[in-house]
Design a protein that fits this description.
Blueprint: H1 2-32, H2 38-73, H3 79-93
Length: 100
Amino acid sequence: MIDAIKKTLLIGLGATVTTAEKIESALDDFVKKGKLSADEAKEVARKITEDGKKEYEEAKATLTESIEELLQKYNFATQKQLKALEERVAQLEGPPKDSE
């Protein structure tokens, strides 16, 4: 399940990179045709990049929240909870005994 989520995020990131390349290419065409100045193109690219990062962070936060809710709903233990249990068991078992 976690692998599927990772793949989904990577696909989204790949789409973002592809989209950024297309946007850059389109902006270069506008500059070449005189429809935008180089400074205007840089500003548009900066704005699009900024908005894209914001949307990515919001989507990531929403996905993280959804996953946490799903784990709680189906009573799955988190890595943090498992680590705490392992530490507790180690404390209860005490130090290893030397074999004589």
